[in-house]
Amino acid sequence: MRKKIVAGNWKMNLTLEEAKTLHKDINEALTTTNSKCDVYHFAPSIYLNSLIGNDQVVKTGAQNGYPAKNGAFTGEVSMQQLSGIGTQAVLIGHSERRQIFNESASFLKEKVDSALEEDLKIFFCCGESLEQRESGKFKETVIAQLKNSLFHLNSTDFSKIIIAYEPIWAIGTGKTASPEQANQMHKSIREAIAHAYTQEIAEKTSILYGGSCKPSNADELLNQPDIDGGLIGGASLKASDFLEIISTYN
To answer: What percent of the chain lies above the pLDDT cut of 70?
Structure first.
């Protein structure tokens, strides 16, 4: 059975006190609930030290990390530094990092290798733009992102990767990815993994959906056969909404 995962990406939101309260509320709620999925909070790096705890249900992740171990990279935080404070996971390849910060496939590949060296769980994001979706080249686009930054890994290392599919064209555009469209892309990703590795590895890889999942559509989306959870944005900032999405797997 593939692991079901619900992860909240807080992006550049919340004050420290708001972050601590939200993290505490989710942890407390889950200690009394028999949740059948893993739960992660991807918080701003400056908050991680205040959120990490060994006795917590919710795992902590960083939204970004730099591949070099140390050096003259003002403002950056290394994978080694993240691991050193007990961070458990890191997002790599998020559409905002690709688009706003122009992170290339080769740079993301460096990040993947560095994170694996530090034993960080990798949530690797991939997805296509509206233009790429409408051109009909969306599958090729997404699979190329995997090939260029992930498929150099051996089977053992690849088994440590979680994929998060983000249909960028369905976020803030007024267009909507149907559950069937989302599942079809997840299926295509799984087929690409099977081609690059084995069917067994593909079947064991958790692939999350990251396209405007919220309480109103979570049940229909997250229970598609090839969708193994969600990378949640705005809905993860409100405890009641995030817990309702998590309850999809209870």
So the answer is: 98
Q: How far apart are CA 42 and CA 241, in angstroms?
A: 16
Q: What is the mean pLDDT of residues 157-171?
A: 93
pLDDT band at 174 (very low <50, low <70, confident <90, very high): low
Contacts of 237 (CB under 8 A, 6+ apart): 8, 10, 13, 14, 22
Kindly state the tokens that stand for 133. Answer: 């979706």
Q: Is 8 part of any known ligand binding site?
A: no
Global pTM exceeds 0.85: yes
65 is in an annotated binding site: no
How far is the CA of 84 from the CAs of 18, 110, 205, in angstroms? 24, 19, 26
Q: Is 106 among the annotated ligand-binding positions? A: no
List residues with catalytic annotation. 94, 166
Which of the four CATH numbers 3.20.20.70, 3.90.1640.10, 3.30.70.60, 3.30.310.50 does domain 5-249 have? 3.20.20.70
